[in-house]
Write a structure and sequence with these properties.
The chain is α+β, with helices and mostly antiparallel strands and about 100 residues long. The chain contains two helices and six strands. Strands 2-1-6-5-4-3 form a six-stranded mixed sheet. The protein is globular, with a radius of gyration of 14 Å.
């Protein structure tokens, strides 16, 4: 994973006090990759699904639970590496995101 990240990558999370999130901005590829892998292992549920979508004009993903979105992740990419990762878990900020289309 560290090969995808810029050496000075930043991970910014927003739980809004309503969902677990890092309290501080994480900086550096090693620290960021450890956090992202650890958080995914710890927080992933079998009923979650991913969908790709632009998030605030950046490429990103939406993580959905059966009852709707639980998190967005946006990637700031420059020179083929990820410069910043923006994670939003604050339920107030996820309300506007429509549930995935039924298949």
């Amino acid at each position: 994973m560290t090969q995808l990240l810029a050496g000075d990558v930043r991970v910014v999370t927003d739980g809004g006090g309503k969902a677990p999130a890092a309290l501080n901005v994480l900086e550096g590829a090693d620290r960021a990759s450890r956090f992202l892998v650890g958080a995914t292992r710890k927080g992933w549920r079998d009923d979650y699904t991913l969908r790709f979508a632009p998030i605030n004009g950046l490429p990103g993903i939406i993580i959905d639970a059966p009852d709707g979105p639980v998190q967005t992740v946006a990637f700031e990419i420059d020179d083929d590496v990820i410069r910043a990762v923006y994670v939003v878990r604050n339920t107030d900020k996820l309300r506007h995101i429509p549930a995935p289309a039924s298949s």
